[in-house]
Structures are given as C-alpha cells and as structure tokens.
Design goal:
The chain is an alpha/beta fold and 553 residues long. Helices cover 36% and strands 12% of the residues. The chain folds into 3 domains: 15-108, Arc Repressor Mutant, subunit A; 161-170 and 416-544, Aspartate Aminotransferase, domain 1 (Alpha-Beta Complex), CATH 3.90.1150.10; 175-413, 3-Layer(aba) Sandwich (Aspartate Aminotransferase, domain 2). The longest helix is centred in the C-terminal third of the chain and has 27 residues, at 411-437. The model is unreliable at 1-42, 116-120 and 543-550 (pLDDT under 50).
C-alpha cells in the first residue's frame, strides 16, 4: 500500500470516482475469469474489482483479519493501473470492509463479513442460474462417487483419549534426519527443472529396490517400481486400468473399506470371502468361477490382524492364475512385526506375473507426505507409467529425493527400528490395561503385528457397538466399531458375532492408554447397567447410525 492509505479515513471516497476509466486498455487473459463483469459493464473494471472484493469478504474467502495483496502486486496481477487499485482499496476502507495503515499490509476489517445468512441461488439478469449453480450431468463414475458415504474424522476435544487407527504421533517423526535430508536436497541445485519420470525419482527407486530386497526378500527391477501419492493412488490406478463396470473383484470380509470404495467407484462387483484366524479362507474361492481381481492384505489382514500362511498364499496364487485374475497385495504395515517372522510376499511367490505389490510410507513416516509405492508386472509397466503421467505427472520430486537420502544413509532403517520398539511398547500397554480393567470381559485379536488391536466383547451383540461407542464418547474416550468393515452377504445368513472395537495406539503414550481404557470400562459398566434395567432396546446397528452404510456383496 502507498502512503496515501493512512490509519483512518476521514470521509468516504465519492462513489462516482469508481466509475472513472483509469485502468489500462490491455487486459490479461486470466483477468477474464477473475472478473465477473465485462469491461463495458457499468463502473468498468474498478467497479468489478470492488464488487469482487466485497463478495469474497462476504463469503469468507477473504477471512477477517486476513492480509490482502499490495496495490502494486494486485495491479500487476490484474493488468490495472496502481491508481485504480488504490482507489478501490480506499473505497473498501471507507465503507468499513478493510483496514489500511501506512507502511503495513491491508487487512479485512473485523465485522466486515456478515454472519451465516441464507442466500438464494445467484441468477443473472435473465433469471438463469449463475455458472456456479449449473446442474450439469455427472458421469457414471461421478454418480457412483456422489452416492458414497466417505467419513471424515471429527476433531477430538481437549482431554479426550482417541484410540483411532491410522494417524501417527507427530513427536515420533524423524524431524532432524528429515530436515538434514531436505537441506541436502536444496543444496543440490538441479541444472534443469522439468517433469520427471512418472514412475518416480530414479535415485529413490534404486534405494527402495535395495530396501525391499533386504527387508522383504522382494526382487524387482527399478523399472517395475513406481512411486505414488500414497497407497490409495496405487489402488485407484489398479482399478482404473484393470477394471470395467461389472467386473467381479474378490475382497476380504471384513476388509479395508477405502479399497472397496475405489473398486465400487469404477463399477466393480465385489465378491466377499470371509476371514478367519489365518486370513482369507482360500477354500471358499472355488465357487467364484470368474474374477478380474482379488485384493488382499496377507501380511497383516485388515482389520482382524491375521497372517496368511504359506499354504494359503500358494492356493490363492494358483486360483488367481486359473481365473486369469490380477492379485493386488497390500503390504500396508509389514514393518510392525512383533511375534511373527516375515513370510515371503505374494509377489516373491508369483510365477505367472499376476501380482501387483503395494506399499506405503504413511505408517512409518507420515500419511501427510503422501508417499507410497507399487511393484507392477513387466507387461504393465508402460501402461501404469502412462496413466500416472496423465493423472498428476509424478509425485513431488523434493520429498522423493529426501527419502532417497534417508534410505541410502540408513536413517530410515534406524527410524523404523525405533518406531517398532515404540509401537510394541504401546501395544503391550494397551493389552496390559485391558487385562487390568476388563479382565474376563474382552477378547483381544491381532497382537502379532500392526498398529491396532481388535477388542471383542463376548457378552454384547454386534448391535450394541454403537451404544458402546456413544457411551464411551460421553466419558471422553473415542473408540471405533468393527461392524462397518463387514459387508452383508446377499446370499447367506450373516454369522452372529459379538460387539467389537478397533483400537489404535500409535498416537498414545502409556498413561493416556490406561486412562482411556479405564473410561471405556466405565462406559461398558454403564451400558450393561442400562441393559439390566431394560433400557437396551435402543441399540442400533453401526451401519444404520450414520457411521457407514454397508451394501451387500
């Protein structure tokens, strides 16, 4: 802002001044999309700019107290004279929408934005809906996505204990090692700034190739490796390139719903196979005569935590080869093995080229980095690389290079070992707390590996899960029902099961874990007391309580 913008405005700028033709004749192309009024509209571009700022303040785009661009920067961006922009700012200040002060940035004034007010859909002079109200047709894919219920995690109140699965504790992130790697990357000035290979940074793929060979016994070429924006993008690529609407896809039941949603969005017909203490029941695959894909979590079945033994792995691969079905192996948290030895991956056992191996760094570093990888069969390399290029060119280069340095100097391996010790200690604390507070009232599943446990309540039916979750929430502890991860079978009666909770521990320390389980125990006591007094008739299945809607298989 120039000096003309003092701390106060003694009087309003005459309205007619905003209509003066003080802008340049040349207009930038992007200005046409930013201005809703044509140059020949009443008041010209200065009036359009004034109205635009008022509208953006009103709808909250420019938040109260937020800084505005300088008159010089805005004039250069919009192709206007600085005098025109200064005049608009003066009028906005005079009308109480912004605050200006000599030598400081202009900011949106307190009270400038109205409260929540219901507004009718915007229409033009002819009565037609404004462009942002246009109800165009969605594609079939868009329609399927529109109909899905994708749950966002609600904020946790201060003092509450959250046994959520997925997030990691920020204090566990290797901040110093990561900053060193980023600084090293910044010092390595690139001679050419251009798009990279869609499969990802070559140095990272080389380092990852070595890492997977050493830790998972996995043999692959750097050409087969592709760096993706988290495992979710890997699943999306698999669905987009390998599935047509109506294609049968075999999934575990219960299973990972975000994977199921991806397949459903592309029109797949999900075929559910039950899971037991040894993972996917491969003996139930024979009746499935046709399948295009099978999605499994063999190293740590989600959510029950079972481990697919070598015999079943071979049965699954033989069945897939016979059906000409692709196998997507989600190796999402294999780093956290506490009492099981690493088994050969499906990819290592594959002799037909049907396995696509998917991994992620979200469970060891941070889900916010959006870094994952996939190993694809040779015949799919070019197809997946082309699809990745079309989707987003490639993953962000800087963080790829930083991760490559951590893998090369051993920092990542040291971090994983430290994380494994931390998470195992947290798991032991959770088991100990459950034994202390809920002895004889719960059964625990999935202790061999991972970042969560499944806790069953044999005395409660599955229909009681939502009531238990709500009662626990009232006492300041957040827990999550397992039922939304089951899919109803459309052909056979569902096996009765007790109420169950998924309890993650990666965010919590020992004291918080014990406190949370103590509150959960009290919630269970209150729930059982209400049942004893005849108040249990309000129980509601989780899939009917707004948590997640489960279609049949």
């Amino acid at each position: 802002m120039g000096r003309r913008h003092g701390a106060t405005q003694s009087k309003s700028v005459p309205r007619f001044r905003l209509g003066e033709n003080s802008q340049f004749e040349t207009i930038k192309p992007d200005q046409l999309t930013k201005m809703r009024r044509e140059k020949h509209a009443p008041g010209g571009l200065s009036r359009a700019l004034y109205e635009e700022f008022r509208a953006r303040i009103a709808d909250g785009t420019f938040a109260v107290g937020g800084s505005l661009p300088s008159t010089r920067a805005l004039a250069a961006e919009r192709g206007l004279s600085r005098a025109t922009v200064s005049l608009v700012y003066e009028q906005l200040a005079a009308d109480g929408f912004i605050e200006t002060r000599g030598g400081a940035v202009s900011r949106v004034a307190a009270g400038a934005a109205p409260g929540d007010t219901a507004r009718a859909p915007a229409r033009d002079a002819a009565g037609a809906l404004a462009p942002d109200q246009f109800a165009g047709r969605l594609s079939a894919l868009g329609t399927r996505v529109e109909g899905m219920t994708l749950q966002d995690t609600e904020p946790v109140a201060s003092g509450d204990t959250d046994f959520i699965y997925g997030p990691l504790a920020g204090r566990d992130f290797p901040t110093l090692a990561w900053l060193r790697a980023l600084r090293a990357v910044e010092r390595q000035r690139m001679p050419r700034l251009a798009y990279e290979d869609p499969r990802g940074n070559l140095e990272l793929r080389k380092a990852l190739q070595t890492h997977l060979s050493q830790t998972r016994g996995l043999s692959c070429s750097t050409e087969q490796l592709m760096i993706v924006n988290g495992s979710q993008q890997a699943l999306d690529l698999c669905a987009r390139l390998l599935l047509d609407p109506g294609d049968p896809v075999v999934v575990e039941n219960p299973g990972y719903r975000m994977a199921h949603h991806v397949f459903e969005s592309y029109g797949a017909d999900l075929q559910c196979i039950d899971v037991d203490e040894h993972g996917l029941r491969t003996g139930e695959l024979d009746p499935v005569r046709v399948a295009q894909m099978v999605y499994v979590t063999p190293t740590h079945q989600f959510p029950l935590g079972s481990f697919l033994p070598i015999g079943r792995r071979r049965e699954l691969l033989a069945w897939a080869a016979d059906r000409r079905a692709w196998v997507v192996e989600d190796d999402y948290d294999s780093e956290y093995r506490y009492s099981v030895r690493p088994e050969a991956t499906l990819l290592s056992l594959d002799t037909h080229g049907c396995v696509i191996h998917v991994g992620t760094f979200s469970k060891t570093l941070s889900p916010q980095l959006r870094l994952g990888y996939m190993v694809v069969p040779d015949r799919l390399v070019d197809t997946f690389a082309a699809a990745k290029r079309l989707a987003d060119r490639h993953a962000a280069t800087g963080i790829q290079r930083a991760l490559a340095l951590l893998l090369e100097d051993g920092s990542y391996d040291r971090h994983v070992r430290r994380m494994r010790r931390l998470q195992h200690a947290r798991q032991r604390a959770l088991i100990e707390a459950l034994q202390e507070q809920l002895a004889g009232r719960v059964e625990v599943q999935g202790v061999a590996s991972g970042l969560h446990l499944v806790v069953w309540f044999p005395a409660l039916p599955s229909m009681a899960e939502l009531a238990l979750v709500k009662e626990a929430s009232r006492l300041g502890v957040r827990v999550y029902p397992v039922s939304p991860l089951y899919r109803r079978s459309g052909q056979q009666a569902e096996r009765p099961r007790p109420a169950g909770l998924i309890m993650g521990y990666a965010l919590l320390e020992r004291e918080a874990i014990f406190d949370g389980v103590r509150r959960l125990s009290e919630a269970l006591r209150r729930l059982e007391a209400s049942v004893g007094q005849g108040r249990g008739a309000h129980w509601q299945a989780p899939d009917q309580g707004g948590l997640l809607t489960q279609p049949p298989c």
